[in-house]
Write a structure and sequence with these properties.
Order of helices and strands: EHEHHHEHEHEEHEH
Structural class: alpha/beta
Number of helices: 8
Strand content: 5-15%
Shape: globular
CATH topology: Rossmann fold
Low-confidence stretches: none
Mean pLDDT: 89
CATH architecture: 3-Layer(aba) Sandwich
Number of strands: 7
Number of domains: 1
Largest sheet: 5 strands, parallel
């Protein structure tokens, strides 16, 4: 059992759980470097090197970036962050990515000390998702009712107008829940079973501030 505040954390939660908003708050309050595969892949494209061009070609063709290429991007970028607290939001997403996380830990030189699930029911998640807004510049996530920006319609960090998420359209919400249950649900259960002393589930159906406090307590940060 880890007795000191964890340095490296993986956060899980179905779409609509509030996971990303909670992760952002935790990162800002306690100095975690956020690790989001999608953001790192977009950064790789902007860098324009050989690795980024491979990613760009796949994304332009509407194809998924394969796990081995995503691993290369993660390994490169995490090497620069290895002295920081790391907070993984959305990785590993599938059982196929679980061994990649183990490879990253060994190659970069860190160890995940907590796996956290923000647990909400599918019905609660669906009810929440219509109010989500995101900053297109920095990817900060808000909710119009539960965690609104300080100024209506703009990001607290950079003042960029917030937008709705295309994948929060009603016709795709149910599909996204099913995809989570099929692909990421087994990952959560894997860590619950294989690392019970490092796994914690937080009741995500409470008000946002209570969930945030429970998360900090579970990580030994309050």
């Amino acid at each position: 059992m880890v007795n000191h505040p964890p340095l490296h954390v993986v956060a899980f939660g179905r779409p609509g759980s509030g996971k990303s908003s909670l992760a952002e708050r935790l990162g800002e309050a306690h100095g975690f470097a956020m690790v989001r595969t999608g953001v790192l892949l977009r950064d790789a494209v902007r860098q324009g090197d050989a690795l980024g061009r491979q990613v760009e070609a796949l994304l332009a063709a509407g194809r998924l970036v394969p796990d081995d290429l995503a691993y290369e991007v993660l390994a490169r970028d995490l090497s620069a962050l290895r002295h920081n607290r790391l907070l993984f939001d959305g990785f590993p997403r599938t059982l196929g990515q679980v061994p990649l996380m183990a490879r990253l830990e060994q190659a970069v030189g860190f160890e995940i000390e907590r796996y956290v699930e923000i647990a909400v029911s599918p019905d609660e998640a669906l009810a929440r998702m219509g109010g989500r807004r995101v900053c297109p510049t920095c990817a900060a996530t808000y909710h119009l009712r539960k965690s609104p920006p300080k100024a209506e319609g703009v990001c607290d960090r950079d003042g960029t107008p917030l937008v709705g998420r295309a994948d929060d359209a009603p016709e795709v919400l149910g599909v996204r829940q099913a995809v989570y249950d099929e692909h990421t649900g087994p990952v959560v259960e894997h860590y619950r079973r294989t690392a019970p002393d490092r796994f914690v589930a937080i009741d995500g159906e409470q008000p946002f501030e209570e969930v945030s406090r429970d998360l900090e307590r579970a990580l030994g940060l309050s």
